[in-house]
Every structure is written in structure tokens, then in C-alpha cells.
Amino acid sequence: MNRKNIFLQGMRDGLPIGLGYFAVAFSLGIIAKKAGLNAATGFLSSLLVRASAGEYGAYSLIAVGAAYAEVALMCVIANLRYLLMGASLTQKFNPSTGMLTRILVACCITDEVYGISIAYRGDLAPSYTFGAMFLAGIMWASGTACGIIAGGTLPVNVVSALSVALYGMFIAIIIPPARKDSGVLVAVLVSFVMSWICSRIGFLSPGMRTIVLTLAISAVMAICKPAEISYAKDKLKSVRMKADA
After folding, report:
1. What is the pLDDT of residues 120-151, one digit of tens each?
2. 3-state class of 226 per DSSP?
3. Helices H, strands E: what count in the chain?
């Protein structure tokens, strides 16, 4: 497929993600309203950050008059997991993909967009991730703006019910590979259990806990059950054939 068709495919796959994002961002908009943000500011902040934990922390700090440096540092810590996701996506790119394109794709990463991008068959086409994030990002930012406009008029239990769709969608992303690969299944189950245990004992913040558990569990699984390298060999062979031609 050409870039346009791949971009449209990304938009199609990003639509259900965007619907879930809108509901979650709506609740963030209510928090942003209490922090004094208007709809335009909320839309722009959500479009640039696109992270529920980071935005929640940022709006909470803004509400108490925290310094800009404190807000920025909190966002960096809460979103460190995206560094790991960006690093893993580099394995999906064709070797000829330029550095600027790689950086732009990394800027498009969210949990769910990363999930569909890493599951993309073959080399990751940047247009696919751009398409998914284009639609999902706009709906996320629009949800925040709408939440600010609504100003908390909807009952809290209604907003919470809408947010459940996003978690169900994320589970739908990880279930298929877990059913096909026992190693992935074990890693998922262990991550659930360890995350729950760490949350109960108050071990680190949610963002740092994600980083620590991701590194630890993936390192153990890489040693105990290394991934097959046949795909990497096939890709290297293809690159060499193109170079010879």
C-alpha cells in the first residue's frame, strides 16, 4: 500500500482508541476547569502531552500554583515509560528510515497507539502511526476541551463509566499475542500481580513503578525465553539483497 492508504488504515485503527480517549479526557477536562484552564488551553495541553497521568498531575499542580519547573519535572517522571516504548519501536523500522521520522513517530506514542504499532505486521510504516495518532490525538484533546466547557455538569459516576471502555480496549490489544505466545502470557500475568503488590505496599509512584517492572520483567523473560530471531535474519537478508541489486 502507498502512504496515503497506510495513513487511512492507521486512522481506521485509531478510531476506537480515540473514542476511548475522548471519554477519559473528558474527565481530565473537568479537573483542568477547576485548575483555571480555558477550553483552548486545555485542548493545546492535551494535544501536546497526551498522557492521562501526566496531565492529571500537571493540572493538579497548576491548581495549587506550583512552579513551571515542578510541573515539567512531574510530567517527565510520569511519562518515562514512553522512552522504553520508543526504544522498542526502533526494532520495527526499516533500516532506511530517517532519524527525523523516527523522532516524530516517538512523539506520537501513547500506550494504545504503541500497542497497535508494535503489532503492525512487518516493518512499521511511519504513516500508520501518524494516522492513528492524528485521529486519536485530536479526539483526546477535544475530550479535554469539552470537559472544560461542561465544567463538571455530568455526574462523576457517568464519567467513570465512560472511562471503562479505554481499559477494555487496551486488554483487547494484549490478549491476542498472549494467547499465541506463552512467554507473553506469563509476562502479562506476572506484570498484573507485581503491579498490584507494589501498589498495595506503596512501592514508588505509578509512573516509576511501570518503568521498574517493565525493565525487570522484560529482562527476565529475555533471558528465560528469548524471542526467535528468524524474523531479524529474514529482514537482514532482504536488506542485503536490495543492496546487492
Report:
1. 888 889 999 999 999 999 999 999 999 888 86
2. coil
3. 12, 0
Q: According to the 3-state scheme, what is the secondary structure of 62-84? A: HHCCCCHHHHHHHHHHHCCHHHH
Q: What's the number of CA atoms in the CB half-sphere (13 Å) around residue 85? A: 20
CB atoms within 10 A of CB 128: 25
Q: Is 112 exposed, middle or buried (0-12, 13-18, 19+ CB in 10 A)?
A: buried
Radius of gyration of the chain (CA): 19
Grid cell of 211 as nine digits: 518503568
Would you list the DSSP string of 85-138?
HHHHHGGGS-TT--HHHHHHHHHT--HHHHHHHHTSSSSPPHHHHHHHHHHHHH
Q: Cell digits for 83? A: 522512552
pTM above 0.70, yes or no: no
Distance between CA atoms of residues 167 and 223, nearest Å = 30
Residue 12 region, left (φ>0) first, then alpha (ψ -120 to 50), else beta?
alpha
User: What gap in Å lies between CA 131 and CA 38, rounded to an integer?
Assistant: 28
